[in-house]
Design brief:
By secondary structure, the protein is α/β, with parallel strands linked by helices. Helices cover 36% and strands 19% of the residues. Helix 1 crosses helix 5, helix 2 packs antiparallel against helix 9 and helix 3 runs parallel beside helix 4. The N terminus is likely disordered.
Length: 276
């Protein structure tokens, strides 16, 4: 959901919050373990179908997957007539909390392993599988009217800046890149998911924002993207898992298998996602 842009007078509060998060991150960097390489996909080369599964499933998915998963859902339904996939897209952190609190769903896809861990630690999901990755990119209004040149502009008090809130995956990734670049950002607004952050740019409410590469692509001619080297230090890996309270576990697994299949990966690659 969108939040109203913070007034310039609110910047010290936003800055203080981000500085605190940056400090914790920097102190932990020396001991943070490196992620292990994901295991190879177990999906077969043929497209999985849910021929023995009827009914419907609900998939809770990170907002950045909106366009790709909407297409995958249509393709899956076309291959499995009579089956229905309903999506709820939003902040991974919010969705994870909803699952732990008992929200009915069959599949969960998060924009970071840390967010998925909220669900696995609560015993609410089966073993997750990493399936794609995504990288932050600077988004500016089409034509870059405010002359943004790089990450250093996010520390400029005169610029209107939007970031994802630190507790959601795109915000956590932003904290990591600012720590790597030794930049203290001065945001005007902290949004609750990446699509809300992107909308601030598309509507020219801010001069720049940090969103995912896939979101810049999905915005089409509404925004331009600016790559920056520090983004390689904060690549987000996306896990997917069926949920233990699923009312239709066979169909849920069939959907996950389809996402992991060559057909699913083709849609994700077209949307700009990379291999994990």
């Amino acid at each position: 959901m969108n939040t109203a842009p913070a007034r310039k007078a609110d910047k010290p509060l936003l800055l203080a919050a981000l500085v605190a998060v940056l400090g914790l991150l920097i102190s932990a960097c020396a001991t943070q373990p490196q992620p292990t390489a994901p295991s190879s996909s177990s999906s077969s080369s043929s497209s999985p179908e849910a021929s023995s599964s009827g009914g419907a499933i609900t998939v809770l998915a990170a907002a950045s997957l909106t366009e790709a998963f909407s297409q995958i859902g249509k393709d899956f339904e076309a291959k499995n007539p009579g089956r229905k996939v309903t999506f709820s897209f939003g902040s991974s952190a919010t969705l994870a909390t909803q699952i732990v609190q008992g929200a009915p769903a069959d599949v969960f896809t998060a924009a970071s392993p840390a967010t998925m861990k909220t669900v696995t630690a609560a015993g609410a999901s089966n073993t997750p599988k990493d399936f794609v990755s995504n990288t932050l990119e600077i988004a500016v209004p089409k034509g870059n009217p405010h002359k943004i040149t790089g990450l250093q502009d996010f520390a400029d008090e005169s610029k209107r800046i939007a970031l994802c809130a630190p507790q959601v995956p795109c915000g956590a990734a932003a904290v990591r890149v600012f720590a790597e670049a030794k930049i203290v950002p001065k945001p005007d607004t902290l949004e609750q998911d990446v699509k809300a952050t992107l909308q601030k740019v598309a509507s020219d409410e801010v001069d720049a924002a940090l969103v995912y590469h896939t979101d810049v692509l999905s915005a089409g001619n509404q925004v331009d993207g600016i790559e920056f080297p520090e983004a390689q230090h904060a690549i987000n890996v996306y896990p997917i898992a069926t949920l233990k309270d699923s009312k239709n576990p066979a169909l849920a697994q069939a959907f996950v298998d389809y996402v992991l299949s060559p057909e699913g990966h083709a849609v994700l690659a077209k949307a700009g996602f990379a291999q994990p």
